[in-house]
Amino acid sequence: MKKIFSPVVTAFLLAALCAFPGAGNAAQEVVFGQVASQTNPASAANAKGLVVGIQAYFAKVNAKGGIAGNKLKLVTLDDDLQGPKMLELTQQLVADPSIVGLLGFLNSAGLAEIAKQDLPVKAGIALITPLQGDRNVIGAGNVFPLRSGYADEVTALLKEAKNWEKNEVAIVNMNIAFGPPLAQLAIQEAHAQGLKIATHQVIDVSPAAFDASVKAAVAAVSRSQPKAVLVLAAGKPASEFIRAFREAPGGATQVYGLSVLLHDALVNAVGADKARGIVLSQAVPYPFIPSKAVINEYLTDMNKYAAGQPLSFSSLEGYLGAKIAAEAVHRTGSQPTRAKVLAALTNLGEFDLGGLYVKYTPAKRQGWGGVELSIINGEGALKK
Asked: Is there a single domain that holds both residue 206 and residue 249?
């Protein structure tokens, strides 16, 4: 006998069907966009690490069915570490409505311009855990940092110098980005800690003046005979100064640098022999020993979902950023959108990553806040 359903019964069945998760509303990919160059030698190792860490955490979440049935996905674009190109690619990402957030950006010049143009706010999108500590970037609208800022790293390095009785410090900074403001902060902090400034040198990064500027800075630092040298630069300005300084009289003097002075790129640029003994501040915890719950989780997941990939500070940073991004998606419910992800992060409050905490509120967005120190050994590896 042919069964005939009345409109009332049909409506009831449809309502019942829609009550089940995912019914009538297919699961979707939740896509985060990243700009980080895996091809430029100065950023390749850390960009690859960020991607590996993000992908490892996303793979774990997806293996468990995703979040409300939605799978997490990362789309990475390569800017060749060129500031204008990062800006262009970021605009491309935010023009794509499928991108719910930006994650794990790497490029100091590009990030500075993104912050200057207030791009995340204008696009109504979150920029989550960029590999950056410049206050102008991590304090910009809709930026949700993991790092607390370069200022904390400078303070930690100068305290280390004082602890080792290196009471005369030369300060060398590049004349762009974080260089000038951090140099002034370092001078103030050195005086506060009772340290003497042996000399303060500025490297002009413009192509016409660069070589002569490096040469003059090396000569001045060498003449001043400091007990330590604090390098507030990254990329070529840092590596060229360090290479030349190591070959000058007094070149064996202790050198300190920020986390943005990426150790892999530095070792590749100057050689393990010249990089040996350089102390670098780190804005994420030491990733090789399970000293915190989240480090143990990271080590387990890297072994399972990124087998064969090297452990590194940058892969841990990517992993932590992915964990923050996933938590934001979780708090949006079953239909994540760009606006919902941004709102979830803005109101995240204090979030425990596993012994590390970030705190995001409408009034303030605060990263982990810790600084650890590492040293480059004779093989070019970082040790705690």
From this structure: yes
